[in-house]
Amino acid sequence: MGTNENEWQGALSAIDLAAIEALKKLKQEHDQVSERLKSMETMKSNFADAVYVRVRADYEKRIAALDAEAAPLKQAAREQYARLRALLGRFEADHEAIKLDQQELELRHQLGEFDDKEFGKRMKAIETTVAERGQARARGQELKARFLEAFHSESELEQADAGGTNRFSMADLAAAQARTQEVASVIGGDAPPNKTQTMSAINIPEPERVPAPPVAPPATGGATQIFRAARLVPQNPEAGKQTYTLTLKPIDIGADAGNDVRIGGPGVDPKHAKIVVSMGGFTIVDLGSKHGTRVNAEKVRERPLANEDVIQIGAARFVFREG
C-alpha cells in the first residue's frame, strides 16, 4: 500500500466514533418512548384524563432529558462527520482523476507512444492504485453508514448554520427546553419556573477543590455586594482533573502556561477566553479565538453564566456550578 493510502487509512482510523455509539443507545430509547406516546393517543379514551396527562407528561419529560443528553454528543458527532465528508470528497475526486489517467493511457497507447508490454505495465500500476484507494473509499462509506445509524436522516446529520458551525444541537436543546417547560406546566414541575436546564452535565465525583474565595468587600455607595462562590468542574479528560474555584479575580483560559486554566490540544488559542465577575454574576468572554468558545453547544462572544452551563473550549468541557 502506497504512502497516500496509508495516510488516508490513518485519517479514517482517527475518526472518533465514541459519540456515535452513545447516540445509538439514546436514539433507541428515544424512538421507543416516542412510539409509546403515539400509541397513547389511540388508548386515550379508555383511561381517565388525569391518568393520560400524568403518563404523557412522564414520557415527554423523559424525551426532553434524552434530547438534552444527546445534544453535546450530536455536536461531537457532526464535527467528526465533517472530517469524514472531507475525506470522502477527496476519495471521489481521486477516483475521477484515476479514470482520466486510464483513458489518457489508452489514448497514448493507441497513438503509438509505447508498445503493448509497456501499456500493460502502466495499466497494472494504475489498477493497483485503484484497488488500494477503493479500500479506503469502502472504509469511508462503512463509517458514513455508522454515523447515519445514530441519526434519523442524513440531513439531520449534515445540518449546519450559516457560519459553518453545527447548529443541530442547539435545535435539540431548544426542543428539550420547550418540552421541559411544557411538562412543568402540566404536572406542576419540580423545577423553579425561572430555571431552564439546557444541557445535562455528567455527574462525576469532583476532585479536591481550591480553597473557597473570600467574600467581596463593600461595594461603592456603602452597599455590601454578596459574592456567590462558583467553580469550573472538568467533564472529560481533555479538561484535566482539577476543579477551579472562581473568585473576584478574572480567570484567564488558554493554551499558554501563564493562564489560570491551561488547556492543551487543537482548537485552543494561547489566550482563548476569560471569566469575569460583576454585580450580575460571572460572564465568559471569548478573546477573538479562531475556533470560538461554546456555552451549551452555542458559539458565544460574551455570555453570562448560569448554574450547570457547559463550557467547551477546544475538546475540553467544563460545567459551571454555583454555590
Count of individual beta strands: 11
Number of helices: 6
Radius of gyration from CA coordinates: 27 Å
What percentage of amino acids are in beta strands? Answer: 5-15%
Order of strands across the widest beta sheet? 2-1-11-10-7-8
- Biggest beta-sheet profile: 6 strands, antiparallel
Principal-axis shape? flat
Structural class computed from helices and strand pairing: alpha+beta
The separation of the N and C termini measures 58 Å
Descriptive report:
Helix content is 49%, strand content 14%. By secondary structure, the protein is of the alpha+beta class. The strands form two sheets. The protein has a six-stranded antiparallel sheet with strand order 2-1-11-10-7-8, with no helix packed on it. A five-stranded mixed sheet has the order 4-3-5-6-9, with no helix packed on it. Strand 7 (293-295) and strand 8 form a beta hairpin. Helix 2 packs across helix 3 (49-110), helix 3 (49-110) packs antiparallel against helix 4 and helix 3 (49-110) packs antiparallel against helix 6. The longest helix has 62 residues, at 49-110. The protein is flat.
